Amino acid sequence: MTAYLRRPEGKTLLFLALVTLVRLIAARWIHLTEDEAYYRLWAQHLAFGYYDHPPMVAWWIRAGMTLAGDNPLGVRLLPVLATALSSLLVADLARSLGGKPETALRAAVWYNASLTIGLGGILAVPDAAAALFWVACLCALARVAKGGSPLWWLAAGAAAGLAVQSKYSAMFIAPGVVLWLVVDRDRRRLLATPAPWAAAVLAVALFAPNLAWNANHDWITIAKQFGRVAPRKFAPVHVLELLAAQFVLLNPLVSVYALRGLRLPWLKTPQARPALALPILTAAPFAAYLVFHALHATVQAHWPVPLFSGLAVCAALAAETWPGGAVARRWRIIGTSAGLILSAGLLIYMTQTHSRTLAKVDLILALRGWRELSEDVETLRERQGAGWVGTVGYGTLAQFEAERRIQAPTLQILERDRYRFDAAPHAPLQGPGLVVDLARRLDPEDLARCFATVTPVGELDRGVHGGRHAHYAAYRVEGPKVDVVKDGCPDSPERIRNRFRSGS
Question: Residue 491: helix, strand or coil by DSSP?
Answer without folding.
Answer: coil
